[in-house]
Amino acid sequence: MVDEQAKKVDHLKVVPEETTTPEEILTEEEKKTLEEEEAEFRALRRDVPGAKGASDAGMLTISVGKQPSPKNVFYRTHPKYRPVFAMVNVEVGMDHHFIAVMPNMVEPLANIGIAVADHTLYLILTELGGLRIIPVRGQNAEGEQNEWDRTKEQALIKGIDGWHRMYADMPNGAFMAFPAPVGTKGEPKWPDIRDARITRLAFKAKGRLIDRTDHILVKKWDGRAKA
Questions:
Q1: Residue 126, class by beta-carbon neighbours within 10 Å (0-12 exposed, 13-18 middle, 19+ buried)?
Q2: What is the pTM of this model?
Q3: Pairing of strands 62-64, 131-137
Q4: DSSP 3-state assignment of 209?
Q5: For the ranges 54-63, 71-80, 123-132, which has the lowest average pLDDT?
Q6: Who's near 79: CB < 8 A, 6+ residues apart?
Q7: How far apart are CA 87 and CA 137, in angstroms?
Q8: Which SS3 state, helix, strand or coil, does residue 195 take?
Q9: In whole angstroms, what is the distance from residue 34 CA to residue 32 CA?
Q10: What count of other Cβ atoms lies within 10 Å of the Cβ of residue 203?
Q11: CA nearest 35: which of 192, 193, 196, 191?
């Protein structure tokens, strides 16, 4: 009986656990895309020489705007996503579009009278599940910051630790943050998505990244675009 049990045990082999990383299951084309996104994100950043994200995610829609949308919606602010990009604010009708600018295009734009300004990007998640990037213009060359921008940034930072609603205090020329009652909305569920992917979905995928002289906006500004 003991011999039979020994034989059974002898047939049991320990199979080494196979481990695979996300990079190992990607196709070569997918790897190339991720590398391009990371290189693009590092090149755009004005605050650090480079940055790495977490893991990739599926298709998402990420809007970009001056304030949380729709108006008076409660939001939370991502605690870590806070890159600084050079940007141009373009007015299209009643809307304002934030256009990201690659470092190599800052001087060519300046040569045709288009000035860029550094903006800190904040990622918010609304109570409706919408993702939105809100750029906040930084200090100027004299170290001064517009009061609307300064108070908007304060309101966004408050959203890191709790749900808030942003509104404009017109008499005082400032943004304010109204907190939601504690425990009424639960914790935000952030998507598992890399910073570089967020940037591409919000800007390049929508044609809002100026990275070359033949970009449609550059052609419009320097007169090459047909009327």
A1: middle
A2: 0.74
A3: parallel
A4: strand
A5: 54-63
A6: 160
A7: 9
A8: helix
A9: 5
A10: 25
A11: 196
